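step=encode ok
step=design start
structure_in=
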């Protein structure tokens, strides 16, 4: 029963619904399970807070959990 957490800057509610549906569909197909077993949350992050709220704790401090590295370096 996977749970997906998306942290994102400045997206509309409509875009969030599209993102949630696409990620749910992809994970469902990849794992061969019903979308009913998948939950997903989207957390809004202010652009000015990205370094402290996301980049440092999620990317720098948890490299073993990172399966897709960002193509940017804000440092």
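sequence_out=
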């Amino acid at each position: 029963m996977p749970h997906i957490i998306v942290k994102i800057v400045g997206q509309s509610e409509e875009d969030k619904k599209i993102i949630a549906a696409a990620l749910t569909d992809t994970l469902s197909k990849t794992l061969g399970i019903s979308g009913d077993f998948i939950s997903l949350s989207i957390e809004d992050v202010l652009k000015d807070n990205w370094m402290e709220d996301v980049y440092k704790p999620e990317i720098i401090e948890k490299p073993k959990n990172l399966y897709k590295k960002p193509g940017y370096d804000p440092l």
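step=design ok
step=annotate ok -> The chain has two helices and two strands.
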